[in-house]
Amino acid sequence: MRQHLTDRLRFLLAFLAHPRQVGAVLPTSHAAVRDMLDMADIPGAQLVVELGAGTGVQTGEILARLKPGARLVAVEIDPRLAQLLEERYADRRLTVIRDSAEHLQAYLDGQQADVVVSALPYTSLEPGLRRRILDALPEAVAPGGVALVIQYSPLMERELRRRFTCVRRRISPWNVPPAFLFACSQVAA
Is residue 97 situated within a structural domain? Predict the structure, then answer.
């Protein structure tokens, strides 16, 4: 319980310091994270990428589902939150990148992820940055892979449909506010 409250405070402080970068005052609920991750085959993945790792709500659940020998690359722009992730999860499968998600390709060595999990606040980002990250998202996903995107409004669905041929949507009502979950993939023609 104490860690939960500490994480909420850390997240709130990160939001107050950079509201457009963080995009929410509270971390995503565990129920919404589970709902989102259920939309992809995390146990079968070799490489999972997490964009906007925050305090690690998604990170912990991804690691719990990830098989031995697989990799998780977590990207977090806030240096304090990135340090928290490194300290909290001493797992050889995890690599924490302290950078903007727009530079993801520089850290993948030409690889593509089986699953990309994005908790970035797209509607809060500067439009040029939002476009660059969204445009890079399909390139980061391996053929047959999926990009999971969590948002607090349905506004990004149209942008996701422009970039992916298949977008499934689910709502997780047990989050505050309710979370819109998207599973995006490319379907071969």
Answer: yes
User: In this structure, what CATH number is given to the domain that contains residue 45?
Assistant: 3.40.50.150
pLDDT value of position 6: 59
Q: What is the pTM of this model?
A: 0.86
In a domain, 181, yes or no: yes
Rounded CA-CA distance 74/51 in Å is: 6
Weakest mean pLDDT among 11-20, 136-145, 153-162: 11-20
Domain contains 1: no
Long-range contacts of 25-29 (CB under 8 A, 24+ apart): 26/176, 27/54, 27/55, 27/57, 28/54, 28/57, 28/58, 28/119, 28/150, 28/175, 28/179, 29/57, 29/172, 29/174, 29/175, 29/176, 29/179
Residue in 45, 19, 36 with CA at minimum distance from that of residue 114:
45
Burial of 186 (0-12, 13-18, 19+ CB in 10 A): middle
Q: How many Cβ atoms from other residues are within 10 Å of residue 64's Cβ?
A: 10
Torsion of Cα atoms, 46 then 47 then 50 then 51, to 10°: -160
Q: Is residue 18 in a domain?
A: no
pLDDT, tens digit, for every residue of 44-92? 999 999 999 999 999 999 999 999 999 999 999 999 999 999 999 999 9
